[in-house]
Amino acid sequence: MKKTLATTVPAALIALGLASVASAEIKIGASVSATGPAAFLGDPEAKTLEMLVEEINAKGGINGEKIELVLYDDGGDPNKARTFATRLIENDEVQAIIGGSTTGTSMSILSVAEDAEIPFISLAGAIDIVQPVKPYTFKTPHTDRMACQKIFEDMQKRGIETIGMISGTDGFGASMQAQCKDVAGEYGIKIAADETYDPKDADMTAQLTKIRNTEGVQAVLNPGFGQGPAIVTRNYRQLGIELPLYQSHGVASDGFIELAGKDAVEGVRLPGTALLVADLLAEDDPQKPVVMAYKTAYEERHNEPVSTFGGYAHDGFALLVDALTRAGSAEPEAIRDALEATSALVGTTGVYTMSAEDHLGLDLSAFRMLEVKGGTWSLVE
Fold first, then answer.
1. Considering the entire predicted model, what is its pTM?
2. Together in a domain, 99 and 189
3. What CATH number is attached to the domain comprising 41?
4. Contact call for residues 251 and 229 (beta carbons, < 8 A)
5. Which in 68, 209, 214, 215 has the greatest CB count within 10 A?
6. Contact 236/208 with Cβ under 8 angstroms?
7. Cβ within 8 Å of residue 55, ≥6 positions away
8. Which range marks the domain in which residue 349 is found?
9. Position 284 in a domain
10. Would strands 26-32 and 2-5 be described as parallel, antiparallel, or unpaired?
11. pLDDT tens per residue, range 134-187
């Protein structure tokens, strides 16, 4: 599916993909998983990008130039993502790409973007996307390694030393599982049980029973995204396991609470962004104005709760707009150089400062440790 967007074109034509956008002077491409198993990621990302392009064009664009958004739906398929990335560069002639809702689609897009020397801002979590640093690839979510570190910090505070892990075998789950194993020792954490599940599995009671029966386990960590963590959470409660349960930032949304069930998810902790607790932020928190502005605009437009994942797209677009504004040019190399020079850009996910050695630009302080209380997100003090 392809959509092109410019504020000067009737919506009916845009929906048909037949719009003429001759007035647009800066072309931005996007490939997200708006449908399929990762639609909970890609749908709010697509809606966010469309909304933000309309907003900025209504204000006159960037340095007087309007933006055209060429948007494809890859359905979470890495092969489609690679095809769309090639099409965006060769046929649509975009100056930059935002997208890659999942680790798999991001890795496909970046391989094409790097070869073509087109800036790419990923919206996925795996550390492999930006480490080692690739010249034209950047990303907005915290890495899975950072999620492990934030979780282990919280476990240390609670006196937890021995844990069980149950991880999805998808790209994100497998990557975070490996990263957690790699850093656990730094926090004095022993992984006594290590189970996995396929993202399509409908029941994880066998794996959870093994973990429950493992001597010394004090908490359980579930690296994964999609429906898997929701099933794990429901099975966890059905088995009557009373140990603390931690999830990843891959399910940091109201949709996870609804899918798992409010009773089952009570007490679950995970590292998340300021966006999920916007109303609880201190008035002097530098992220509050940005978070509230995006939350208000999105929820008024779409009549649905804002999500962390839409926030990743918000920040990707903000990074690109900031880079284009400072570069004074829409040439891909100039955009790349400006992205790498990003300094103290406040987003919904954190405050970004990038460098030649860091194409993420966030530290652990940007993560907030959250806990579900009474069916909603609360801040862990």
1. 0.88
2. no
3. 3.40.50.2300
4. yes
5. 68
6. yes
7. 297
8. 2-142+289-363
9. no
10. unpaired
11. 999 999 999 999 999 999 999 999 999 999 999 999 988 999 999 999 999 999
